[in-house]
Design goal:
The chain has 292 residues and is α/β, with parallel strands linked by helices. Helix content is 39%, strand content 16%. Helix 2 crosses helix 10. It binds nicotinamide-adenine-dinucleotide.
Length: 292
């Protein structure tokens, strides 16, 4: 078993971003400015946003956080998004998901200026990604590709199983891995909750990307000898031995797969830190992008 150190790789990426910011400062160019819109009091969302702000500080970005009460109306939120769209100092921004139920998420994402859409969720950018045209890639799939690339896991011609079909992870990574790109060219199967005989699909796969959110779902008897696994799942499970009262667990039972697996990402410390680093990488690329 070879653990893929996502924390270390994300730090390398953050160092690269930091030196790119320093180079910009040297030639009197603007410091990148990332903003986040947070609605409500969801604990996990607050933690994610805080980690993003901390990462901005680390690389020398300017950051802004716009917080709204979860009673904000859809129209109210759209008008705040319009203000951020028009703010010339802000280069990129994210709307932290999930949003409260009374707000139509798709409608909100549509309002984000595609030039500032560093999450890559606007249909314009999502469409470009699907077509294989250079654009913002959603941060988690982009982080997975970075991990694969920097660990030199060969994808060409390999059987790759993506488990989970969410719009933010499973679907986009299945598209990216099947494209005719250096770290693509895989034969991809996209499995989901209605898939039949998942164990058979897993056993046939050279690479498994799991994004389902069921703790320790994938066991040793489900995988092929030497296969690589990217574990995207993050679930909090009760742990009375921890001061927080919980621990973070992935989709893979690490102990059970350890004698058979090749490369694997741990949870925590695998895909999670890469997601934030790739969001910042997208913000840097705002300067290079234009819709014209
Ligand atoms: P989701 O929670 O929206 O949906 C889960 C997906 O899993 C669905 O497509 C469903 O069809 C599939 N699924 C559920 N049970 C299944 C089963 N028994 N067999 C096969 N497929 C099954 O998906 P999401 O938003 O991509 O989140 C998935 C996990 O990834 C969660 O634990 C989430 O916290 C985590 N996540 C991590 C990061 C990161 O940065 N590491 C980013 C996003 C999401």
């Amino acid at each position: 078993m070879k653990l893929i150190d996502g924390k270390k790789i994300s730090e390398q990426l953050l160092d690269e971003i930091k030196s790119s910011v320093q180079n910009r400062i040297k030639i009197n160019l603007k410091v990148p400015h990332l903003a986040a819109i947070l609605v409500g009091e969801d604990g996990a969302s607050k933690t994610y946003v805080n980690s993003k702000i901390k990462a901005c500080e680390k690389v020398g970005f300017k950051s802004s956080l716009f917080k709204y009460d979860d009673s904000i109306s859809e129209i109210g939120l759209i008008s705040q998004i319009k203000k951020v769209n028009e703010d010339k100092d802000i280069d990129g921004f994210i709307v932290q998901l999930p949003l409260p139920r009374h707000i139509d998420q798709d409608k909100i994402l549509y309002e984000v200026n595609p030039c500032k859409d560093v999450d890559g969720f606007h249909p314009y950018n999502y469409g470009k990604m699907t077509l294989g045209v250079d654009t913002f890639l959603p941060a988690t799939p982009a982080g997975i590709i970075e991990l694969i690339e920097r660990t030199e896991i060969q994808t060409e011609g390999k059987k790759c199983l993506v488990i989970g079909r969410s719009q933010i992870v499973g679907r986009p990574i299945s598209i990216l891995l099947s494209q005719n790109k250096t770290f693509g060219n895989s034969t991809v199967t996209l499995a989901h909750s209605r898939s039949v005989d998942l164990k058979k699909l897993c056993l046939e796969s050279d690479i498994i990307i799991s994004a389902i959110g069921i703790p320790e779902f994938i066991k040793g008897d489900m995988i092929k000898e030497g296969s690589s696994i990217i574990d995207v799942g993050i679930t909090r499970v009760k742990d009375l031995s921890s001061s927080k009262g919980y621990k973070i667990v992935g989709d893979v039972d690490l102990k059970s797969v350890s004698s058979k697996v090749g490369f694997i990402t741990p949870v925590p410390g695998g895909v999670g830190p890469m997601t934030i680093a790739c969001l910042l990488k997208n913000t840097i690329s705002c300067f290079k992008r234009s819709l014209q």
